[in-house]
Structure formats: C-alpha cells, structure tokens
C-alpha cells in the first residue's frame, strides 16, 4: 500500500503543484457547480476520450480556488497503469484509509474516482462513503458505460446521485479551443475534425486514423467484447461499420440483420439487438426514436442513429457516398443533446421532420438541410414544418452562406449561428 500511495501522490495536488486541466469546459462546470457542497454523488458519464478526466481536474482546480485544502482532495484515475493493483472495492477502501492516515485531512474529504467501472464492486465503497455519518465525503465519479453506472447507482444509491453526460467538444468549444471565429470555414473544419480533444494535437492524417482506430478497438474489445463475453467480435465490428455508414437514416434492427445475411454474415434479431444496445451503452452511438406528431406517440419499428463523434465516420468509414447534409444532421443531434434536450425524429403523415426537441415545457421543430439551393428544396424543407400547424418554434438549419430570414413564421439559420 505504501508504494501505491506514493504513486497516488504523483497524480494528486497535495503539494500545490500546477493542475494540468486542459481547455475549460464551462458548460459542464456550471452545471456541476450548482451541486457542489451537497451530499449527492456526482457522476460524469460518456464515451472514452471525450474529456471526463480533464473535467474532474477542472473540478479539483475549482475546489482549490474555493479554498478547499488540497490535502482534502483524493483523486484516483483507474486508466493509469500505476493503479492496476486497485482491483476491487476492498483495495480502494484500504487506499482511502491509508491516505487519511498519512495526510490527516480535517473536515470534508472530496473523493474523485475516474473510470470507476474498472474497480470490481466499486459501488460498495462509494455507498459506504455516502452513508458515513461520522465523517463527511463528497464523491465524484466518471465512467464509460451508461448501464453500469445507472444500474448500480439506481440499485445502491437510489435518490442520492446526479448524473451528467459528457459529449465531445461542441462547435463553440472547438472555436474557443483554437481561438477562431464562428463562421462557415471554421464550421466545415469542425465537421471534418470532430470533437475529440486529443485529435486536435495530432497533426497528420495517418496519426489521426491510427488514434481513432485504436480508440474504436479499445471500446469494442475492452468495453463490450470483454465485459459481455461476446464470442463474435467480427459481427460486432460489422454492425458498428453499418451504423457508421448509415447515420441519419431511418432503419430497424431487422434491416441490419437482412443486410448482414445478404453479405453471408450469420446474424439473428436477438444478437444484433443486443450488440446495438452495447454500442449505445458505451456511447459510441445514440438512438433517436420516431415520434408521430398527430398521434402524439412514439412509433415502433425504425429508429435513427447518430455517432457520438464524426471522427469515426471521417477517418474509418468505408463508404464515400455520404454528404455534408448527414454530417450536419449528426452535429445538430449532438448540439441539442448537449443543451439538455430530448431529441426525437418527427413524423407527420408521410412527411419527416429531422428533429423534435423537448426540454421541460419547451419544444421546437428542427429541419436540417445542406443547402437551400432551389425553390423546390426550399418548399420541401419548409413545407414539412408548415404541416405541423402548431405554435411551437420551427427552424430550418442549413450551410448556406447567409440566412434567408423567415418564411411563414419558420426561421432559417446558418449552422454556425445556432
């Protein structure tokens, strides 16, 4: 335990060393900041490499700025190989107790556990800390599997936690990181680059392809194949490839099965459905259900799926016929999810509306189009929104150089101005 503690000291800030926290992600710090000081466990969930560890370090910096003694902050990142020996909750408990014995922190202790799912039965220690009435703890967790965290937290910590989903960099964060204006050129660069922070440090195409390929393999093999004891890793990879090539298209699980079978790849409905669910749980993809506007109900059958980051499409896809329209649609989905909206695909008769977004009592209809290049295209994109016949805000978003203003109460906005 002595050697482990020495390693832990290297990654903590007890000696008041400089905190390398990267680009400040204010949208998350503001949300999480509203809960600082209470007993709720704060959980940050999201795909690997979207920046959860940086946000934890930014929280540490914020705590120290608020005059919290650095020795009262315990930070453990389980992705670092130095801590491979912390295998289960007992190891974690012993390390925390040893830390307290050595540093003797007075008052509340802030415990930050990064990629907590790597610790077997971690929830037992977290539950113990949250229930300790003799000593005060405030706990922060990150994890890369939505089911693991939500399932275990719901079981052991019912009503005592709050969750924040962390996404890749938004367009606004991208322009802030590079200190460039928000315009069409920077938006096109963002569509190409994606939102994974580490990619911005890699200068050549080959290195970026290798990075994204390695990240994909880590998530597929470690977070899915290893965790769920999957026997057919090739089938999982082919399903992900199919979904990458078909983002923004309406399709069902049966369509994936039919596609695979037509390529002489053995698959059935149950297996494919499970594999798609695993891809969602690791945040590689997101699902948008189809909502019948007239019937006011979720429709069964087809769904749309979107990538958590376009870099998986841009650097790894085998399909060349894609178009910027689908890129724009994917970015809009992520944009509104980041802002806290629930996002659905809209249906009104035979017409489709790209997104219905809802948050509390707010509701909007969003239509995405690459370019409003002709009168026919304008009529098509605005026409489906006109058929909704209600008072909710309606917006067409495109990549035209300038906004066309409004048409019959429907607003047009350039993509980089949303």
Would you summarize the structure shown here?
With 418 residues, the chain is of the alpha/beta class. The chain is built from 15 helices and 13 strands. The model has no long low-confidence stretch (mean pLDDT 94).
Can you describe this structure?
By secondary structure, this protein is α/β, with parallel strands linked by helices. It folds into two domains: 2-165, Rossmann fold (3-Layer(aba) Sandwich), CATH 3.40.50; 171-417, Winged helix-like DNA-binding domain superfamily/Winged helix DNA-binding domain (Arc Repressor Mutant, subunit A, Orthogonal Bundle). Helix content is 43%, strand content 20%. The protein contains 15 helices and 13 strands. The chain has helices at residues 2-11, 26-33, 52-65, 89-103, 122-131, 146-156, 171-178, 184-193, 205-228, 233-245, 253-262, 269-281, 311-316, 324-338, 375-386, and strands at residues 41-45, 73-77, 109-114, 137-143, 161-165, 285-292, 297-307, 342-348, 351-359, 362-369, 393-398, 406-407, 410-414. The strands form two sheets. An eight-stranded mixed β-sheet has the order 7-6-8-9-10-11-13-12, sandwiched between helices. A five-stranded parallel β-sheet has the order 2-3-4-1-5, with helices on both faces. A hairpin with a 4-residue loop joins strand 6 (285-292) and strand 7. It starts with a helix and ends with a strand.
